[in-house]
Design brief:
Blueprint lengths: L5 E7 L9 H10 L4 E5 L5 H12 L4 H26 L2 E5 L2 H11 L4 H12 L15 E6 L2 H8 L13 H17 L4 E5 L4 H14 L9
Parallel strand pairs: 1-3, 1-4, 2-3, 4-5
Helix pairs in contact: 2-3, 3-5, 4-7
Bound molecules: thymidine-5'-phosphate.
The site of thymidine-5'-phosphate has 13 residues, from helix 4.
């Protein structure tokens, strides 16, 4: 499904600083002569961006939230991610399904079995062939930061959306959701200690890419 393409996602609680490394990641891959598709979730298509506004602004129950997030994701996969991977692009995606397990599953306490079902529906191969392997990122950079520090970083930074306005206790559960997801797929996840300086965090990112043969001299 994604011959030659590389699907890289960035994850972490709000305030962990993941998005501030997108420019440098894009420059790194473009410096290798690769085309980069840079996108985000919820969002990445006109429909998914419309759903994002609803998800981030409207109060709703966790099932409604999960259905909307996966509806946005399905459109995003079909319109942007799959075509980009088929072209051989590097897809840099700011959040993907791990965020649903962390925020809706961990933070909201929603049933992760239902989320797994929705994940199969949204990410299985085309034509309803549920036995076809799920579309998943090749590598996920997980920016791990103590929720108390993330809250300090966020305080006063911008007008908080529905999630950013949640108490620290919510983000403890989100962080646990990420930890559970990382433990279940350790080969895909790279834990980045986001408590360090921005330069040190970037060094960790670069080192992870070098270790996987995606950057540096020994690159395949
Ligand atoms: P962002 O601020 O990093 O763009 O993320 C938007 C917010 O949406 C963030 O608070 C996390 C939340 N979110 C979910 O609750 N579930 C999801 O599946 C995704 C992708 C994001």
């Amino acid at each position: 499904m994604n011959a030659g393409g590389l699907f890289l996602t960035l994850e972490g609680i709000d305030g962990a600083g993941k998005s501030s490394h997108l420019d440098a990641l894009q420059a790194l891959f473009e410096g290798q002569g690769r085309a980069v598709t840079r996108t985000r979730e919820p969002g990445g298509t006109p429909l998914a961006e419309t759903l994002r506004t609803l998800i981030l602004e409207q109060p709703m129950d966790p099932l409604t939230e999960s259905l909307l997030v996966f509806a946005a994701r399905r459109d995003h996969i079909a319109q942007v991610i799959e075509p980009a991977l088929a072209r051989g692009d590097v897809v840099l995606c700011d959040r993907f399904t791990d965020a649903t397990f962390a925020y809706q599953g961990g933070g909201r306490g929603f049933d992760t079995e239902v989320l797994s079902t929705l994940e199969r529906w949204a990410q299985a191969g085309r034509g309803g062939q549920s036995e076809v392997a799920l579309l998943q990122p090749h590598i996920t950079l997980w920016f791990d930061l103590a929720p108390e520090i993330a809250a300090q970083r966020l305080a006063g930074a911008r007008v908080p959306d529905k999630f950013e306005a949640q108490p620290v206790e919510f983000f403890r559960k989100v962080a646990q959701g990420y930890a559970d997801r990382a433990a279940a797929d350790a080969a895909r996840f790279v834990r980045i200690d986001a408590g360090q300086s921005r330069d040190q965090v970037w060094q960790q990112v670069e080192a992870a890419l070098v270790a996987r043969g995606l950057a540096g001299e020994g690159r395949a």
